[in-house]
Amino acid sequence: MIWLFRILAGIWTLFMSYLLLIPGNQLKKYWVFKNQDKIAHFSVFLIWAALVTLALELEQHTKNIYWKVVAGAFFFGGAVELAQMFIPQRKADLFDMLMNVSGALVGYFIAEYFKKELFGTEKKLDK
Q: Which pick of 37, 65, 75, 107 has the fewest CB atoms within 10 Å?
């Protein structure tokens, strides 16, 4: 089961990288209301953090996953924001960075909840 979360996390990382790094004019035609990009940043990092948390925690069974996920979201989100400075019609935004980390935090806690509720804390899923 761990391999499934690893594959999903990898696919999602590629997909979100594409969404976060394409020129802004290709995304804005789908926006329904102003600042929808903040919701998008929050949402993609929520899903990313949940998948990464499950992939790492089910394998390693350690309490340090929280800091790895938060640091990963901070550095990955920061790299995306820096890269957006060089992409047409995109700009770096500290509020986007805040949404990235906030989404990752919520995603981590959602993954923790589902891990305990669906899989139990004592079960190993790699069998």
A: 75
